[in-house]
Specification:
With 188 residues, this protein is an alpha+beta fold. It has one domain: L,D-transpeptidase catalytic domain-like, CATH 2.40.440. The chain has four helices and eleven strands; from the N terminus they run αααββββββββββαβ. The strands form two sheets. A nine-stranded mixed sheet has the order 4-11-1-2-3-10-9-8-5, with helices on one face. A hairpin with a 2-residue loop joins strand 2 and strand 3. Helix 1 packs antiparallel against helix 2. The longest helix has 10 residues. The N and C termini lie far apart (38 Å).
Amino acid sequence: MRPERVQIQGSPGPLNCLRAIYQMPRPFALLATAVLCACAPIPLTTQPSVPSAASTFPMPALVAAAERWIEVDLGASEVILHSDEADPVHLGAATGIAGDPAYGTPVGLFHVQSMQEGPIENVPGVFVSFILIVDIGSGTGIHSLPVDSQGNVLDDRLAPSVTAGCVRVAEAAVTYEFAELGMPVWIH
């Protein structure tokens, strides 16, 4: 079953995308909501605020006890894959605007709730792959760089204040292969 293509009225911002998603059949709407943040426009007038050093954020006890987990360090713009079996793997990442309720990457302890290899067309003409949904309610996830239908990268920036809240990783396949459902994801 394929969803009908839904025309977004106005700019492809989050509110208009959500209105379009509301018209989709439920299975497609849930997935589209989850990857919405991949390419929503960021206002150019917003000044980013970078979080303090990671040492000011105490590690949650649940993460400390886990054998394998994912860390998203907003201040360093990186995803870190932790395992008892190997040294941590550091991957550059793009994140949302710190402290912005509409475009910020939420902080806290999450878990991988859904995994979708993709590619998924999250807004017309924009695709993402290797999607790890960590908060279905807000649509927050970790995914690949956005590409067009031919596979051309649309935005390769890996820095803070680049996305509309999701975490974008160039090596998303590595993150996807490392992850498993229920795995802790600590965003700080």
